[in-house]
Amino acid sequence: MGYKVAIVGATGNVGREMLDILAERGFPADEVVALASRRSVGTEVSFGDKTLKIKALENYDFADTDICLMSAGGDVSREWSPKIGRQGCVVIDNSSAFRYDSDVPLIVPEVNADAVKGFTKKNIIANPNCSTAQLVVALKPLHDLATIKRVVVATYQSVSGAGKDAMDELFSQTRAVFVSDPVEAKKFPKRIAFNVIPQIDVFMEDGYTKEEWKVMVETKKILDPKIKLTCTAVRVPVFISHSEAVNVEFEKPITVEEATEALRAAPGVLVVDKREPGGYITPYEAAGEDATYVSRIREDATVENGLSFWCVSDNLRKGAALNAVQIAEVLVNRKLLLPKSQKAA
Ligand SMILES: NC(=O)c1ccc[n+]([C@@H]2O[C@H](COP(=O)([O-])OP(=O)(O)OC[C@H]3O[C@@H](n4cnc5c(N)ncnc54)[C@H](OP(=O)(O)O)[C@@H]3O)[C@@H](O)[C@H]2O)c1
């Protein structure tokens, strides 16, 4: 007897990817239920070789559901996740609503799977921001080797990170430029086609954006509160995969060779680093893949014990859906959650 899993936001970018990943990885589910807003009731989504009809979240009873993969934005999560959790269904939430709650574990399985145990306080587990997920996967083996003191990261984030409407906006603006139509910006604060925008999410009082703040705070919660981190988050006209230029200062000496070896051995990381034209990974190549790719590893001689590298990953997969499914797998594999159907039998 397997698990009953509900996907909230199953018509969205991340929700659809969750359905694909559950099917690809053969997650032990007896039943998968696809939920979204009332607007989408009756529309169909694919799950492996099956088709699921969307049901409305507001009419769904979670009493016999084991796991809810929640991917419908912060407002929906704030309203629904606590109620679903109280019905004994574990919510793995993709929004930022509960990430900074000390009673909610924030998990990237390659980095801090053991912390998942704390989920029983609220029956909620948070998935990090997409830029944080790939960053901590790459930083973890380096931190274990030479203890990270400070990180400076600039992100180059694809439009899919802002949802399906944002992807449509890049497409329609690009088309408008080619046919000389007026370019309309709705989802982004400025035109994104043939442009880059140094603002993701709202501005905070100190001049950082909320996206930058999330990367800083989440890296500390997942990896180590002692790490100092500063971030500049930039939206680029790419459909899928986020890239990051990362500069790291360590407590102890570390060579490029040692870092490369540690990264090659690390779970979830693939090193592609040939010092020749094209000998690195770009977002286009990472789309649809599970790995966090690391390229361009080099010494930063301007500081003591410094390294720089380039890191790329599919934001809809490792940055969201894959990470959420991996968290569900931790619950299952470590027997932290038994199917309700089995308990009832
Ligand atoms: N995209 C990323 O890289 C990424 C990474 C990490 C985390 N996240 C987070 O994941 C969540 C979803 O992102 P996305 O990119 O998939 O967005 P999206 O493509 O815009 O999809 C949003 C989904 O939420 C559903 N929804 C909206 N209002 C709802 C309501 N009142 N009740 C039930 N369902 C509702 C939508 O259903 P309808 O189709 O019926 O409107 C749709 O399925 C967000 O919290 C986002 O911050 C995204």
UniProtKB/TrEMBL annotation:
Keywords: Amino-acid biosynthesis, Diaminopimelate biosynthesis, Lysine biosynthesis, Methionine biosynthesis, NADP, Oxidoreductase, Threonine biosynthesis
EC numbers, comma separated: 1.2.1.11
CDD domains documented for this protein: ASADH_C_bac_euk_like (cd18131), VcASADH2_like_N (cd02316)
Enzyme active site: 130 (acyl-thioester intermediate), 242 (proton acceptor)
Parts forming coiled coils: none
Pathways involved: Amino-acid biosynthesis; L-threonine biosynthesis; L-threonine from L-aspartate: step 2/5; Amino-acid biosynthesis; L-lysine biosynthesis via DAP pathway; (S)-tetrahydrodipicolinate from L-aspartate: step 2/4; Amino-acid biosynthesis; L-methionine biosynthesis via de novo pathway; L-homoserine from L-aspartate: step 2/3
Keyword presence, Ion transport: no
Protein name stated in the entry: Aspartate-semialdehyde dehydrogenase
Organism (species): Ancylobacter amanitiformis
